[in-house]
Amino acid sequence: MLEAMVIDDREHAEQDGGDDLATALLLRVAEGDQSAFAELYDMLSSRVFGLILRVLVNRAQSEEVLQEVFLEIWQTASRFASDRGRGRTWILTIAHRRAVDRVRASQASADRDVRVGVRDLDIAHDSVAEQAELSIDAARVVDALAALPDAQRETLVLAYYGGYSQSEIATITGSPLGTVKTRMRDGLTRLRTHWGVNA
Fold it and tell me: What is the CATH number of domain 147-199?
């Protein structure tokens, strides 16, 4: 019963101020607080894993990257600046970057193996083409997101990589729902312009 209450409290905290909690925990992790790190992991690991899995598709690689992400958080938490962003967004950005890096590394390795002739030729052509396409798309998205203003980037990362609804984003960022909708619309418009897509 007590365990269920703790889980309910954690879910409630995540909805009503989880980003503030993530930021506070991250600041404690920067000071070497292992219990804060464990709590941060428990709070965000499933969401981070979901983001990574969406990029990589491969579950085993996603699990590896999840561990790399939390190792990086432990090692670099002191670089987090709470005045420049929110803890959850910082963590999701690290996770996305790591996942994209893994896609690029996998593609570079595949390209290198094909050039050298070491790769097993039983791999379907479509899977290699699909992986190359994913790598190119992921790199384009990262570059385009980097060009957006911070508020628009944060909103889009939370929506598309974090899986949050507009209402949840409003709660997380402390912004009115209308502002979140505007940031999303303006951010998507800038991305379309960046890619030369007419809406």
Answer: 1.10.10.10
